[in-house]
């Protein structure tokens, strides 16, 4: 089932706060869809928060059904990340993207 909060955040370029894989993270959501593995995925740029790898910032590909406490923040982000490529190859169906 598609998560309307993630779609809304992408459409409005709003940051998300999520609990994922052991901690709270702040991310800029760029692409949300169904991956080639069958899981719904979010491609996001993490700007702050917990990271299991020790890298609190950078590109992350997250399984959305493992996310908890998804909150849309009142903060808008500018899409100025030149590393972002539309039509993410990890996804076979895209629900929303910048």
Task: Give an overview of the whole structure.
With 98 residues, the protein is mainly β. The chain has a single domain (4-78), classed as SH3 type barrels. The protein contains 1 helix and 6 strands, in the order αββββββ. Strands 1, 2, 3, 4, 5 and 6 form a 6-stranded antiparallel β-sheet that branches. The longest helix has 9 residues, at 4-12. The two termini are 20 Å apart. The model has no long low-confidence stretch (mean pLDDT 93).
Topology:
Elements (H helix, E strand, L loop, with lengths): L3 H9 L1 E7 L2 E13 L4 E10 L8 E6 L4 E9 L14 E7 L1
Antiparallel strand pairs: 1-2, 1-5, 2-3, 2-6, 3-4
List the uncertain runs. Answer: none
Radius of gyration: 12 Å
CATH architecture: Roll
Major sheet details:
6 strands, antiparallel
CATH fold descriptor: SH3 type barrels
* H/I helix tally: 1
Helix content: under 10%
- In whole angstroms, how far apart are the ends? 20 Å
The CATH class name reads: Mainly Beta
Find the count of extended strands (DSSP E, 2+ residues): 6
- Number of structural units classed as domains: 1
Which class do the helix and strand fractions yield?
mainly beta
Shape: globular
Average pLDDT figure: 93
State which percent range the strand residues make up.
over 45%
Q: Would you list the SSEs in sequence order as H and E?
A: HEEEEEE
List keywords for this structure.
single chain, SH3 type barrels, 6 strands, mainly beta, globular, 1 helix, about 100 residues
